[in-house]
Each structure stands twice: as C-alpha cells, then as structure tokens.
Write a structure and sequence with these properties.
Length: 295
C-alpha cells in the first residue's frame, strides 16, 4: 500500500507540474530536418519568435527528412519548420522540377494552402539548390566545370548521396538520365552531414550536397555547374500551420521580418560556424540576429 500511495503522489505531482507549463495555445513548436542548415534555420525561427512575441517556443529539431517534417506539421506535432520550394514542389506535391523561382514559389504557396491548410512564408533570401560536388584537386587536374564534362569520368567514380536524394523525383534517377551518368559502383547512401568529409577522404568521388554547405570551401570541394538546368530553385521558406497564422498573426509578422535577410554567402558562413568551427548554434544564431536587427 505504501508503494502504491507513493506512486499516486508522484503521478499527481507530474500532472501538476505539467499543468504549470505553458499551454499548447501559447506555445509554438518549431521543427527541423536532421542536417546543420536546418538546425540553424530552426534556431533562427525560434529565436525570432521569442524576440518578437510573448509566446513560448519549443524546439523539436532533427526530425529526419522532408516527409517526416511534413507529416509532423499535418498532425499538429509541430507548428513551423523550414522547407525549400523545390523540395516542396517535387518531394511533397509530386510535380515536375521546373519553373522560375517566382513560379515555383507561387505554385507551392497556392497548393499548400489548398491541399494542406499550410501557409508558406516569405523566402529567407537564399537558394540552396543541390550541389553536385567533386574534390577541388580533381576539378583542377581534369579541367572540369560542368556536370556534362564530368560525365566522361563518372564510370571510374563512386558516388555518395543522401537517403532522400535516391528516392525523390528531383534526385538521382532523373539526374543520371539527364546527364547520362554511369558509375563504377552503386552509390553509397549516407547522412547528408557525412558526404563532404567522405568526399574529401576519397571514400567517394562525387556527392550531391547543398550549395550553402559551409564545408565546401573549407575542404576544397568544387561544385559542378548544372549546365542542363536539371534542378529547380530551392528557396528556403518557413512552413506554418494556418491555425497558428489565425491564432497568432504576430508569429507570421515576426517571420516576415526575416524575408530576404539571409544571402547564400551568409547561410554558408552560418553553416561553417556550426559545422567547421564547432560553435554552439544558439550563440551563432544570436549573434547573426543581433547584427540583422540593428537599425
């Protein structure tokens, strides 16, 4: 009986403590995917909301890839997460990877509102398209600048790709068909965060990374030009539950103030600060936002 009594008291205390926390109505849950740039963007969104509103923010980062984040926001487990317009177009909406930045953004915004009751915020300012990378030393030695030129050498190379890149409609199969790519072996599949160092260490010879990866210049990697324009634009945008926009318009207003504030170069520097310099993401983001919010 004594044991049961102690257990009852403990459960009551847990319930009371939970009740003392912020209600779900006054708490915004920010999610992100499981690579550095998404961690940085998730933290930027969280800190901007904390600074510009009176709402409590809960962070739920490292939620695997696009599909998991999309399902999480549809289920109401998260309220906001950063996404890329090209990813939304192809991986979520299953539409062909084509169109200008304005066309892709407009299509994604309209479809997300109609089909999912999700608001697509204004672009943060940078375009993080896929980067087909090789080692800088190989690019210089072979005189390579484009993916078309590299196709002559890929039969001797082994590629490395992220999990999603192998499955998405704007991923490996379409890229290989567009450029006639053949490789020495099956692609190595690994987390996005491991690709750059695997390429540098010669575990692979070609990778599909991101153009804003801070390790590209740090590890002397070279981004091949997408000369056949296979990849669509990938502008970074916040995806927000429409219910949150209606209940807390101040959230969207705060995020709108970030529109156009992050350049390609700045995003690469932020990524490098976390990935290359191993700095704390909270501190990196705080410094960045303080600088951006100065009059």
């Amino acid at each position: 009986m004594s044991h049961l009594r102690r257990l009852s008291i403990l459960l009551c205390l847990v319930g009371l403590l939970s009740a003392c926390g912020p209600s779900r109505e006054n708490r915004i849950v920010v999610g992100s995917k499981n690579f550095t740039e998404q961690l940085v963007l998730g933290e930027i969104i969280a800190q901007e909301i904390e600074a510009k509103t009176h709402l409590t923010v809960e962070r739920r980062f490292y939620l695997a890839g696009s599909y998991i984040c999309h399902q999480a926001i549809l289920a109401g487990r998260i309220d906001i997460y950063p996404e890329y317009t090209g990813t939304a177009l192809t991986a979520i909406l299953k539409q062909p990877p084509k169109g200008t930045q304005e066309q892709v953004y407009g299509r994604v915004k309209a479809e997300y509102a109609e089909r999912f009751h999700l608001a697509v915020g204004q672009p943060f300012g940078f375009n993080d398209t896929f980067a087909i990378e090789i080692r800088g030393e190989d690019a210089r030695r072979l005189g390579l600048k484009t993916i078309s030129q590299a196709a002559a050498y890929t039969p001797q190379w082994r590629p490395g790709f992220g999990y999603e890149f192998m499955e998405r409609p704007d991923g490996y199969k379409g890229l290989a068909a567009t450029y006639g790519l053949r490789f020495a072996g099956s692609p190595r599949i690994m987390d996005l965060g491991l690709l750059a160092r695997a390429l540098k260490d010669k575990q692979i010879d070609l990778a599909a990374g991101n153009t804003t990866d801070g390790l590209i210049p740090a590890l002397d990697l070279f981004v091949l030009q997408d000369d056949r324009h296979y990849f669509p634009p990938y502008e970074a945008v916040p995806i927000i539950r429409q219910k949150i926009v209606e209940q807390h318009p101040e959230v969207k207003q705060a995020l709108d103030e970030l529109a156009g504030k992050i350049s390609d170069r700045e995003m690469q520097q932020l990524n490098y600060a976390v990935d290359g310099q191993h700095r704390d993401v909270t501190e990196v983001v705080r410094e960045f936002l303080q600088k951006k919010n100065q009059p």
